[in-house]
Structure formats: structure tokens, C-alpha cells
Design brief:
The protein has 16 helices and 25 strands. It is an alpha+beta fold. Residues 1-47 have low confidence and may be disordered.
């Protein structure tokens, strides 16, 4: 291990945190990748997000969810699955640092911090990087236990990554992002220490580990008890059961009806909420009514229209924070018309941004003006020149070779009310400039499949919220080379853009990286692969009285933080 300099942790954030581990120092050196060590053990975090011990309260929280999770393993990708994984597995070695949001009782992840300044340890209490960011050593905090009572060790981490390479799912995706070529490249040093040997520099390593709870970390001892000769990785059992070290454990799961979670009594400190009772209520109006009359504490996934109605009830609180959602209109460039930059620019000028903001989102949130969320480092809106301007739209449309317009099929997931509302407003505006629009509402499963196969002509979508606070990561994941990136559902293929975002994945912080960051934002504005709409913010509806909400870039509700005023 090489070391340019040793940096001590900032005493403002050092010390025992919610889960009782130490804040590690930010990376040092010109590139930000020198070795760094844990700071001194100070008092509770000064950000105020750590409450006094309220575990004796043993609250029961009741919730209305839109759907059952199709699985509690990484084989399914829904909001409900993500929520269960967050509650049962909590996350990877690191986490984003919570800071005050400006609204009492609400804390948010420190997404704006440069480099690794906004990242702290979760299961790791110290870590080191080689100067070239290709070798990373992590030290687990001793005494972390699953609900089954087994202690987290290096063996659990290695087994989790071995399983990921077999599953070829989300955690495997993160392996490719961080250039971990095989599980054998994780070296066990001792019971609590292990080392990643990466094929390329990974300047985003800590941020990548700050939010990933897909695929563990697993209590390997527990999981192996449910493995068989034909299922050595316990896929069948883990699909419907949890083997995590997180704050909660699933004790009942009747698909389509109800779930029950109890807290992990080994999780320290104990969450104030001891029991979570979940009713599955597919209809948003019914979920709204249940909260309105006080029958539940929380109603999941409500559209803004419902939130506005609930806000009139003094017994209900709408919790809001700036977030990282990127709803957009996506011209799919497998279509020859959509492949023309001028056409996409004309569509951008024809999009009724303010009308969408006011009529769909009731003025909440803010207009999006960059591929990188406004809460991320290096965000700028200076390149996004588009506003609703039908005359300019007609002019640019003629320059594109379509003076008389063209026929457009606009597809969306019909289970998402806000996307349907957006589509209606977009159709009216597009029709007005000669883009003769036919709406194509599709069932969620059909929409998702056709979107990923790039079979749509144009889509209205809201399923983008990058977890890693970095423009290069956002561009690489969602709009990078379509030949190798299945997430690029609009088939955007710009050679300079591809080169930039690929380089950024392995380039340390500094002037060169910032220059590339801004150029990525500029290309996204010039080429318009996505027509950005409104970032509605994180918005959740609760019975009044709950407090200490924490927003993280997965946009889930993290119940382990909550208590009653």
C-alpha cells in the first residue's frame, strides 16, 4: 500500500454514528486516492441526525404499499423490492453522510460534496486506498450481527461477491463498474479485513458502496443452511426470505395481501420502530383514503394530485426533500426520425415544461436542466437552452426536413398516473407544431420489456434516479455505449460522449475530470437524447407525528431512523 499523506477525520463528523461506527477521513493527495485512516472516536455526530435512544418505545408502524415485492433478492427490480432490500440488508460497506435538509426533522444525503467528502462508513470502520485507486482495503467493525445472531466477517463479504458473479444481476453490474474482474480478486487478510484488487482505477469505489444493497451483504452462514446440491447459492430460499444484517427481518409475506417485519434485535442501536405491518393496496385512491382517515401511518407511491389533497388534512404530513429523479421524454434512436438531432431539438422546444410543472406536479419540485441532478457536484444549467417555444420548434422541425411534421407514437407505463398526465399535455403541445402524436399506454411489464428492447418510438419515463452522485456515472449508466449498455433504452450513441463517460469512471477528481463533467452535460443538452421534465423531489405521505426522516438517493423510506415527536 502506498501513501502520500495521512489525513485525520474532520472532528465535526467523526465519532460514533447511528450504527456505532467511526467516520473515516476523506481521501488525500492530488488525485484524492492516497491512503487514509480512521479518525478519533468523538461524540455522537454533530449533524443532529442521531436521536437519543428511543428503542424502548417499540413503535408499530402500519403502511399501505402499492404492491408486494416480487422477490426479496436481486432477481426483481421494483420499488417494493428495493424497499425490502434496504430494510433487510441496509446497504454495503459505506453510506452517504446525512446532513440537515433545511426542514426540521428531515435529513438528506450529502450528494453535493466533491470526491468522497459526502461518504462515511457503514459496516466498515476504516479503509485505505492505494495511490492509483486500484487496491482498496476495508476493515469491518467487529460485532455486527444478523437477525439470526451470526457475526459479519470477511467470509460473508467474499461469499456475497461470489454469489453475485453467479447471479449476474445488480451486484455483478457494480463489479463491472468498479473493475472487479472475478471474486478471486478479493483477498482475505483476516476475520475482519479484506482487500479488493481492481483491474482499473476506481475513483467512485466508496460512492458505489454507499448505496448498493442489491445482493447482500448476506449472512453466509444462514444462507448456506438453505442451500442444496442443485441450488448451492440458496436462490430459491433467498427469493422469499432475508439473510441480512440490516435493521429489519421479514416474518410474514403473503403476496398480494400483507407483510410483517420485525426489527433485528442485534442491530445497534435498536430502531425505535419494532414492528412494521404492511397492507398491499394496489389502488392509489384507496391508499390515499386509508391515510386520510388515519387507518395507516404511511401510504406508499402516491401521485402529486393525491398528496395535494392529503395536505389539507391537519393529521397528515407530506415529507419533501430535493432528490435525483429524472423524468424525461425519450426519442428512441432506432427510429430513423428520432435519430435526427434536429428533430429531438424541435421536440425539446415543443415540450410544455411549465404547464407540466404546474398541472401535473402542482408547482412542486423544479424543472430539470441537465443530465446530472441539481444536487450533484458540478451541476450546471447553462447548456440547456430549451423552453416552450412553438415557433422555434416549427422552424427547427423544418430544418430537420419535416416542414409538415411527422407521426409520433408516444408510449408510457399506464400504471403511473403522472406519466399519463404528462403524455396528454405533451400530445396537445406536439400536435400544435405538426408532430401528430398518438398515445400508447402500455401495461407496466409490456412497457418495461419494449423499452429495454428499444422497440418504442418515443417514451415518457420516470425510472431514472442515479444512486451515485457523479455525472460520469449517470451518463455511463443511462446513456453510455448502447452496444454494451442495456440501460441505454433510447439507443443514444455519440462517440465523444461514450469516450468521456468511460474515461470518467476511472479518472480521479481534479480539473481534468471537472472539464469532462461539464462537456458531458453540454453534449447531453446539444444532442438531446432525453428531453428533461420535472424533478418532483422526494415526497412521502405520513400520519402527522413521525419525525427524523432520512432521504438517500434510492428514494426509499428508511424506517429505522423514524420516531414520534
Amino acid at each position: 500500500m502506498s501513501s502520500d499523506r495521512t489525513v485525520t477525520a474532520d472532528p465535526l463528523y467523526c465519532g460514533l454514528r447511528r450504527r456505532g461506527f467511526l467516520r473515516c477521513a476523506a481521501a488525500a493527495g492530488a488525485g484524492g486516492f492516497a491512503s487514509f485512516v480512521v479518525g478519533a472516536n468523538h461524540a455522537l455526530a454533530a449533524d443532529g441526525s442521531v436521536p437519543a435512544d428511543k428503542s424502548a418505545a417499540g413503535y408499530t408502524l402500519t403502511a399501505a404499499y402499492a404492491a408486494s415485492p416480487p422477490a426479496v433478492d436481486e432477481v426483481a427490480f421494483t420499488m417494493e423490492t428495493e424497499n425490502m432490500l434496504a430494510l433487510c440488508y441496509a446497504g454495503d460497506l459505506m453510506q452517504y453522510k446525512p446532513v440537515p435538509s433545511g426542514t426540521p426533522g428531515i435529513y438528506v444525503a450529502d450528494m453535493a460534496a466533491q470526491g468522497d467528502g459526502g461518504v462515511i462508513g457503514r459496516w466498515a470502520d476504516k479503509w485505505e486506498s492505494s495511490a492509483d485507486a486500484k487496491t482498496w482495503t476495508f476493515h469491518l467493525r467487529p460485532g455486527i450481527k444478523s437477525w439470526a445472531g451470526n457475526e459479519m466477517t470477511s467470509a460473508d463479504i467474499v461469499w456475497t461477491w461470489q454469489r453475485a458473479f453467479v447471479m449476474k444481476s445488480a451486484r455483478f453490474f457494480f463489479a463491472t463498474v468498479m473493475a472487479l474482474e472475478k471474486p478471486a480478486n478479493i483477498e482475505v487478510i483476516d476475520k475482519y479485513t479484506f482487500r479488493f484488487h481492481l483491474a482499473q482505477p476506481s475513483p467512485l469505489q466508496l460512492k458505489l458502496m454507499a448505496m448498493s444493497y442489491y445482493g447482500g451483504p448476506f449472512d453466509a452462514t444462514l444462507a448456506k443452511q438453505h442451500a442444496t446440491a442443485s441450488d448451492p447459492w440458496a436462490k430459491d430460499w433467498l427469493k422469499n426470505h432475508d439473510a441480512g444484517f440490516g435493521p429489519y427481518h421479514i416474518v410474514k409475506n403473503i403476496p398480494g395481501q400483507e407483510m410483517e417485519l420485525t426489527r433485528n434485535e442485534n442491530f445497534l442501536p435498536l430502531p425505535p420502530i419494532k414492528r412494521i405491518l404492511i397492507r398491499i393496496v394496489p389502488d392509489a385512491a384507496t391508499r390515499t383514503a386509508l391515510l386520510d382517515r388515519g387507518a395507516v401511518d404511511y401510504a406508499m407511491r402516491l401521485p402529486e394530485r393525491s398528496l395535494q389533497a392529503l395536505a389539507k388534512n391537519p393529521a397528515v404530513e407530506i415529507v419533501r426533500a430535493k432528490a435525483n429523479f429524472i423524468p424525461y421524454i425519450g426519442p428512441v434512436e432506432t427510429n430513423e426520425i428520432m435519430a435526427k438531432t434536429k428533430v429531438r431539438q424541435a421536440m425539446a422546444y415543443a415540450t410544455p415544461y411549465d404547464e407540466i410543472h404546474q398541472k401535473v406536479y402542482f408547482g412542486e419540485g423544479r424543472l430539470i436542466k441537465s443530465i446530472t441532478p441539481a444536487i450533484f457536484p458540478n451541476y450546471t444549467d447553462k447548456f440547456w437552452v430549451y423552453k416552450y417555444d412553438p415557433e422555434t420548434a416549427k422552424k427547427v422541425l423544418a430544418e430537420a426536413g419535416y416542414p409538415n411534421g411527422f407521426d409520433l407514437k408516444l408510449s408510457y407505463d399506464n400504471s403511473i398516473a403522472e406519466m399519463a398526465e404528462v403524455a396528454v399535455l405533451v400530445k396537445s403541445a406536439y400536435d400544435g407544431v405538426g408532430i401528430r402524436t398518438t398515445l400508447d399506454p402500455l401495461p407496466a411489464a409490456v412497457y418495461s420489456e419494449r423499452k429495454l428492447r428499444r422497440q418504442l418510438m418515443c417514451q415518457v419515463d420516470n425510472f431514472q434516479w442515479p444512486w451515485v452522485a457523479d455525472t460520469g456515472y449517470t451518463g455511463w449508466v443511462y446513456l453510455g455505449n448502447p452496444k454494451t449498455n442495456v440501460n441505454n433504452s433510447v439507443d443514444f450513441d455519440n462517440s465523444e460522449f461514450n469516450e468521456l463517460v468511460t474515461a470518467m469512471m476511472h479518472l480521479p477528481d481534479g480539473p481534468e475530470r471537472t472539464k469532462k463533467d461539464l462537456r458531458v452535460q453540454e453534449i447531453a443538452a446539444q444532442e438531446v437524447p432525453w428531453i428533461f421534465l420535472v424533478e418532483p423531489g422526494w415526497r412521502e405521505a405520513f400520519k402527522k407525528g413521525w419525525t427524523n426522516f432520512h432521504w438517500y438517493p434510492d428514494n426509499n423510506v428508511h424506517f429505522e431512523w423514524l420516531y414520534k415527536t
